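Morning run. Coffee first, then this:
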Amino acid sequence: MGNYYLYRIAQFLAKILPYKLSHALVMFLCDLHYCFSMADRQAVKSNLKVLSNSGLVSRAQVRAVFRNFGNYLLEFFTMTKRLQPSFVESNVHIKNIEYLNEVLQKGKGAVLVSAHVGNWEMGGAVLPILGFPLSVVALAHKDPKVNALFNAQREAFGAMVIQTDVAVRRVGEHLQRNRLVAILADRDFGNHGIMMDFLGLKTMIPKGAAYFSLKTGAPIVPIFFLCSTEGHFEIHVHPPIDPPVLPDGKLTEQIAKELIAKYLPFIEEEIKKNPSQWLLFREFWQS
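And here it is:
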């Protein structure tokens, strides 16, 4: 069972069943996914081995990633039903939210960098509920119907979606309007990133967040939306990182690499603390 079918089934179950029942069924489907998808299982195990100091990874650890992916989908598809201001107040703990207020007071907006850890989609709904002007850069899904569904969920709470194919122009416009622009910065989908050390091994890291920050002068703020206990969440906001002034106005790959090296440790830290919430089903360090 591939992720595409989990999207569809989780969406259907979330629509017709109470949350607890749909959750139980989605967990069962995730266990089937774990049992029958050898490629996904091996990819997750390979990624977890890098995170493990011993290099040993148990079946339970691998299975937890599959189940957390199911939680991520079900939470995403039930957001419009469950995610009210009262829910956020009772179930979401925010660490260092003052950093977001600080960057907005400067009037340049900010580039929020996160990763495929926790529930980044739910975080994209919570920030607008809290009153923050949020835009999210999103890679379009191959299926137009799935893409439309995801974008509708993202926009339901006030976030604005910027598709990657128009991001070069639109991100600058949104930052000029003093908005927070969120970008996932751990995995390079287009093979146009920069080779960096990441969790001890070389791999391609996306450079878009650094380039937008350098071109506009907007600071970078690492931020992560994580599950703490069942039904409870945390937003971790890290200190803003101001981009350097470009010498002669020239943006070079080396300057971008130096800026990436300043925020990448925050991504590594959050992934190492929450390995079962790093939801990637491809081997991250493939050549």
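The radius of gyration is 19 Å. Good start to the day.
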